[in-house]
Amino acid sequence: MDSLSILAMAAAQVQQQELSQSTESPHGESYSIDADDYTYTIRKGKNSDIPYLRHVELSAGNRYRAVGLDDVAENRILDPDRLASMADSNHLWVAVDKYGPIGFLCGEKLDGNFHIVEVSVSQEFQGRGIGKGLMTTMLEQITLERSFKSVTLTTYRSVSWNGPWCSRMGFGEVHPKLLGSAYDFILETEEEQYGFDRQERCLMMKDLFY
After folding, report:
1. In what residue span(s) does the N-acetyltransferase domain sit (predicted)?
2. Given its phi and psi angles, is residue 111 left (phi above 0), alpha (psi -120 to 50 degrees) or beta?
3. The domain spanning residue 187 has which CATH number?
């Protein structure tokens, strides 16, 4: 076998190893390709990601202006310390492409449930399944943790990429009083501090089965 053939075989082996490593990670990362061959990775969030998530939030919020919800667009920035706390608890997931973060999901424990604090995808990357990928990755990990009764979130009932999208992900609307006063407080705070219309907001829940 000549030297060129040996080099070609070695290059093919390296390429195969790289492909294998990109589709399966020992750290729980998941690799995805959308219909347009756009590639991104979902991984655990790190404190070093937090400064970049602000740009994701601002971009994602702009979409709400099209449906007259300027208050949402202007009040989507999470406290960096709160994000750091969720990252330290391994409850921050970030979608990244070769340029940096393009989406994230974060949450925290609330009355025995895992409460999603935010799901955001930069506006230019929406519609590629990134939000679904983040949600699926989170649900897989939370189920493995076996520490929560259900997953909860608050959202707009009729905005297409809010309540209806969550319904397709297996969430159902529940009355906040069924889950305790902490959830009523969240909805009240959303209205008082951020101007969200409580009549349009709802609490949704997805049971976890072990």
Report:
1. 40-190
2. left
3. 3.40.630.30
